[in-house]
Every structure is written in structure tokens, then in C-alpha cells.
């Protein structure tokens, strides 16, 4: 039996960052992860490989379509899907090896096996060869992440009916891909395959895409994706799916009830969300239970059991890698006796379609529901010089500020490279900045970032570039 100050169960963004921070703070730490590689879903079969394919497919579409030709670049690209997948895997492998290096650098022991609680202060690990290894620790951090949510009546086989993992490694470009779920994962992966030549149909139970997103922002994104050729069937539910050879027949009916229609595809992606991964975690050994969604409750990252902590997708809040990382840092610093907290009001959210979506803080709908008086500053990318030059004029920047104090309450952007720019408003909001603060800060010209300043100017009604 090995003794540690901290044992982290799970090697994803929450887990590996918790382990690294513990090592930096001089704690003796082990991270239990049964995958062959570190990084969890995000690095192995989520954020990273999807971005590799999004980037590659964007370049392919630019070359194959009218974009390159309009710039005076005449080429006839040939899609080599095998090579596209190979470069994706090479990038992922480099990143996971990087975490192994960081573990060694910070004296983190990687225990290669599947861990579960075995009573207070104990973690039992099933090693790859089937042997059992027990670890002792004063503090245990549960960071086991999440898994795709299944859909009743639709059996995922990752041959014809796929989850997000399967959709990242298809051996061919689908003729017709049906995506069930108009959330972030469905829209991003649907975008990849549409750019590479697929007909893509998105079926969504709600009457809008991206629930939780600012409504105007969601409508703008849907309009753009529709123009690109993605079709949407909103207010619809999939009641069943039958695989027939190389095709899938989906039974689709109105969400409010009514006659079903048959929708045929050669591949189907089920992307209706993710659920916390708590299966076989030994929660009963310490008296922990989950809620009906499978989530573990926490109070400032502490569970109801002393010495057991929880972070990331397995607990409440947005299922985002950077949220898990923030929680990891705060959790471990609390374990080490430091003061730490996560500002959940300033966690950005991004959709890596084209145009991109990035937002932070409250939506207009939330502010209206609260009865909070606010003002809006909005600036279109059609009026931004760099966006015009680059032929990337879809979208806008919208700033919501308190009517009385001018404090920035929320920012919502659709447009080019907005994922890289939302951080400016995260910093501003962390320091409780006003829209005037941003409006008075010099931004470089010509850049897309000027749209952030112009939108802030708009709150007081003095936009100068539109």
C-alpha cells in the first residue's frame, strides 16, 4: 500500500491539472488513469482531435470552394482522408506525451489503472494486468469526467450509429450524416463532415439550436450554418433507428407529437449531451450518492465526506475543460491550506464552427428574467476593416452592461477568431470593468479586436466605425 498526500482519480483536464498543481505545491501526489494515454476525453477523443479536423476541413473547403479562387489562388485539392486522420492522431499523441513530461517535471506518480473509492482515505486501483493496488491519501479528488449520453431507441455501434468518438475517426466521408442534437459537439462535428462533402441534417428536440446560448447569437449562427448547406429539423425527436446494411433508417416525429417520418442516412451521430462518469467508482463505500442526473454535489469542491473532493464534468456546472482546470487549481490550493475560489460568472464558452461563437457572462434572456436593467452595445463585423479585407464579415460583437453602473454583465460574439478574443472580456469582467473602460482602451488597427472596442462604445451610443 502506497501513501500520498493527494490521490486524483482521473487524468483529464481536471485531474491532470489538479495533480500538477499539487506537485507544484510540494504535496506527494498520484494520478490514477486507466487509459493508455493521459488527457482524458478532451485530449484523446474530444477537444483536441475535433479542432485538428475542424482546422484541416476549413483549409480544404477554402481550397476546394470559391474562397481561394476569389483570392487569386487557383488549385484543385484532393482529399486524403487517411492523412487528415493521421496528422490528427500525431497532434494528439504529442499533447498526451506533453502531460507525461509535466507529471515527471512536477513529481506526479501516474498509477496506470482504473481507480475506485475503497473507504475513507483509500483508493483501490485495478491495474492493466488485473492485479489490485491500494493507495492511501489524506485527500482524494474525484475527476472522472463524463461520457456521451445515450438516446433510448438508438443503439450506438460506432459503425453506422456513432458517438462523438466514432465521428472523429470515420474511414470515409458520409454521403448523408444525420446529427441528433444541435449542441456544440453536434454542430462542430457536423461542420467537419459537411466541409469534406457530406450532406448534413441536424435533428433537434427543441425549437432552437444551442440551448443556453444568447438567443440572437444562436439564431445568427444557425442562419450562417444553413447558408453553408447544413439543414435543420428543429422541434423534432428521434424515436428509433434501424441499421439496414450500409444505411440507417431513423424514425423522426414532431416533439409535440404527431406522425413519424423516416429519415435515411448512411451515418448517424448521436450528440445529445454528456453525463457524469461515476460507474464503478465505489461511492457507496464512503456513503456518497449522485443526483438523478448522475452528478456529485459539492460545496466549494468538497463533497459531504471529509477528505473527498470533486471537480470537472462529474459535478455541477458547465462541462468545459477550462472550467475543470479552474476547479482543479482552486480545489488543490484549498487542500494545501490556501485561499482559492472559482468565479463561475466569468467562464467563457466557445463553439468552434465557422463563424465561431464565444460568450461569457449573462445573456439578454437571463437579464430580462432577473428584471435587471441593462444597455446593449453591438458592432457588426461587416464594419470591421480586417474582417472585410479577409472576407470574414459574418457576425457581431454584443456587449451587455448594467444600466446604472455600466459594469459589463455579458458579452456574446459570432465571427472570425472570436475564440481568441473573448479572453479580453474575461479579464475585464474579472476586474469588474465598465463598458467605458474597454471603449477607452487603444486597440491595434487593423484587427478584428477593434470590434470589441466598438461594441463597448456602442453601450454609450458613440460607435465610430459603423
UniProtKB/TrEMBL annotation:
Ligand binding (NAD(+)): 181-188, 204, 273
Question: Which major enzyme category is it?
Answer: oxidoreductase
EC number of the protein? 1.8.1.4
- Any Gene Ontology biological process: cellular respiration
Per UniProt, which keywords does this protein have? Cytoplasm, Disulfide bond, FAD, Flavoprotein, NAD, Nucleotide-binding, Oxidoreductase, Redox-active center
Q: List residues of the FAD/NAD(P)-binding domain.
A: 4-328
Q: Which reaction does it catalyse?
A: N(6)-[(R)-dihydrolipoyl]-L-lysyl-[protein] + NAD(+) = N(6)-[(R)-lipoyl]-L-lysyl-[protein] + NADH + H(+)
One GO cellular component this record assigns the protein to is:
transferase complex
Q: Which GO terms describe its molecular function?
A: dihydrolipoyl dehydrogenase (NADH) activity; flavin adenine dinucleotide binding
Bound cofactor: record note:
Binds 1 FAD per subunit.
Q: Which residues form the Pyridine nucleotide-disulphide oxidoreductase dimerisation domain?
A: 347-456
Please give the Gene3D superfamilies that the UniProt record associates with this protein. Answer: 3.30.390.30, FAD/NAD(P)-binding domain
Task: List where in the cell it is found.
Answer: Cytoplasm
Positions contributing to FAD binding: 51, 115, 144-146, 313, 319-322
Here the disulfide bonds are 42-47
List cofactor names only: FAD
Please list the residues that make up the active site.
445
Q: Which family does it belong to?
A: Belongs to the class-I pyridine nucleotide-disulfide oxidoreductase family.
Further remarks about this protein from its record: The active site is a redox-active disulfide bond.
Q: How does it assemble?
A: Homodimer.
Q: What is this protein called?
A: Dihydrolipoyl dehydrogenase
Amino acid at each position: 500500500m502506497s501513501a500520498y498526500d493527494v490521490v486524483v482519480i482521473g487524468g483529464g483536464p481536471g485531474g491532470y491539472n489538479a495533480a500538477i498543481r499539487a506537485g507544484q505545491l510540494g504535496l506527494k501526489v498520484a494520478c490514477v488513469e486507466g487509459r493508455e494515454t493521459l488527457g482524458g476525453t478532451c485530449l484523446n477523443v474530444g477537444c483536441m482531435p475535433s479542432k485538428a479536423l475542424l482546422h484541416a476541413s476549413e483549409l480544404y473547403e477554402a481550397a476546394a470552394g470559391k474562397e481561394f479562387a476569389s483570392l487569386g489562388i487557383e488549385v484543385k485539392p484532393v482529399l486524403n482522408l487517411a492523412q487528415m486522420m493521421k496528422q490528427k492522431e500525431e497532434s494528439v499523441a504529442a499533447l498526451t506525451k506533453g502531460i507525461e513530461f509535466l507529471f515527471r517535471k512536477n513529481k506526479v506518480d501516474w498509477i496506470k489503472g482504473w481507480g475506485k473509492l475503497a473507504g475513507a482515505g483509500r483508493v483501490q486501483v485495478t491495474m492493466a494486468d488485473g492485479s489490485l493496488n491500494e493507495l492511501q491519501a489524506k485527500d482524494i479528488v474525484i475527476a472522472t469526467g463524463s461520457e456521451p449520453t445515450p438516446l433510448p431507441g438508438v443503439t450506438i455501434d460506432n459503425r453506422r450509429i456513432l458517438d462523438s468518438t466514432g465521428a472523429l475517426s470515420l474511414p470515409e466521408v458520409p454521403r448523408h450524416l444525420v446529427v441528433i442534437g444541435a449542441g456544440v459537439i453536434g454542430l462542430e462535428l457536423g461542420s467537419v463532415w459537411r466541409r469534406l462533402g457530406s450532406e448534413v441534417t441536424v435533428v433537434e428536440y427543441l425549437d432552437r439550436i444551442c440551448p443556453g446560448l444568447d438567443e440572437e447569437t444562436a439564431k445568427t449562427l444557425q442562419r450562417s450554418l444553413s447558408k453553408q448547406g447544413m439543414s435543420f429539423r428543429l422541434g423534432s425527436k428521434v424515436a428509433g433507428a434501424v441499421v439496414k446494411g450500409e444505411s440507417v433508417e431513423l424514425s423522426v416525429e414532431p416533439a409535440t407529437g404527431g406522425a413519424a417520418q423516416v429519415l435515411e442516412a448512411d451515418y448517424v451521430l448521436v450528440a445529445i449531451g454528456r453525463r457524469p462518469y461515476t460507474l464503478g467508482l465505489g461511492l457507496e463505500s464512503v456513503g456518497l450518492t449522485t443526483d438523478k442526473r448522475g452528478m456529485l454535489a459539492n460545496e466549494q469542491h468538497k463533497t459531504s465526506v471529509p477528505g473527498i473532493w470533486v471537480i470537472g464534468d462529474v459535478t455541477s456546472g458547465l462541462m468545459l475543460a477550462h472550467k475543470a482546470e479552474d476547479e482543479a487549481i482552486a480545489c488543490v490550493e484549498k487542500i494545501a491550506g490556501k485561499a482559492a475560489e472559482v468565479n463561475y460568472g466569468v467562464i467563457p464558452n466557445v463553439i468552434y464552427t465557422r463563424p465561431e461563437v464565444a460568450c461569457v457572462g449573462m445573456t439578454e434572456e437571463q437579464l430580462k428574467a432577473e428584471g435587471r436593467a441593462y444597455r446593449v452595445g453591438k458592432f457588426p463585423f461587416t464594419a470591421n476593416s480586417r474582417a472585410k479585407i479577409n472576407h470574414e464579415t459574418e457576425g457581431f460583437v454584443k456587449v451587455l452592461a448594467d444600466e446604472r453602473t455600466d459594469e459589463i454583465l455579458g458579452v456574446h460574439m459570432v465571427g472570425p477568431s472570436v475564440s481568441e478574443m473573448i479572453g479580453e472580456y474575461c479579464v475585464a469582467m474579472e476586474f469588474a470593468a465598465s463598458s467605458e473602460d474597454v471603449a477607452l482602451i487603444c486597440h491595434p488597427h487593423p484587427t478584428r479586436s477593434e470590434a470589441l472596442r466598438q461594441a463597448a462604445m456602442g453601450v454609450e451610443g458613440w460607435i465610430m466605425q459603423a
